[in-house]
Amino acid sequence: MASAIQTTCAIAGGGPAGMMLGLLLARAGVEVVVLEKHGDFLRDFRGDTIHPSTLEVTTVAGPEGLSGPSGLAWWGDRLLVADTGNHRIQVFDFEGKFLREFPVFGWKDFYTEPYIAIGPTGSIFATDSTEGRVNEYDTAGTLHHSWRPDGVFKRPTGVTVDPLGRVAVSDRETHRLYYWNLADVLR
Questions:
Q1: If you compute the radius of gyration of the chain from its CA atoms, what whole number of angstroms results?
Q2: Nearest to 93 by CA among 61, 115, 124, 123
Q3: What is the pTM of this model?
Q4: Higher pLDDT, 107 or 21
């Protein structure tokens, strides 16, 4: 037999967005219930993306918190977060403690969902899906290089760089993956 639940707010869906909204409302003192049709959160289910370490980083984010975090990359034992709404990258230690932040040139000039990767020399690569390019920054946030191959990118999103200097970029509008050697694109 079903029982009645009284709440101020009901959220349909326990995915990352629903769980994060539930957390933020609860922290603000709103009575909230998150409804999820699946009875479990198996490892291959989307719900496992909200876990204690994510909540910890949300709690300890920099002075202004996070606004539209979209890209993450490990840099040794540091976690870099592309904090889109605040036009910066925030740096956390392995335990989720905020260490520092730095502005990223260009993010305030366009709306984008940057995804980030760390190159073999420590450079930070970020996609700019609005302008259809990939940017290379140093750890101070200075733009060093930007590339947009003619007719290739429409909306680049994912980016990764391996230790040998090969870069792969996914494009959600062309539904393709693109590969280059960094030495070729950074000339």
A1: 19
A2: 61
A3: 0.61
A4: 21
Beta strands in 138-174 (DSSP E): 143-147, 156-161, 166-171
9-12 and 32-35: which strand pairing?
parallel
Q: Is the pLDDT of residue 4 over 50?
A: yes
- Give the domain ranges of the chain: 1-50, 62-185
CATH assignment, 62-185: 2.120.10.30
**Of 113, 128, 116, residue with least CA distance to 167:** 116
Residue 159 near residue 167 (C-beta atoms within 8 A): yes
User: What pairing do the DSSP bridges indicate for beta strands 156-161 and 143-147?
Assistant: unpaired
The per-residue pLDDT for range 20-37, each reduced to its tens digit, is 777 777 777 788 887 776
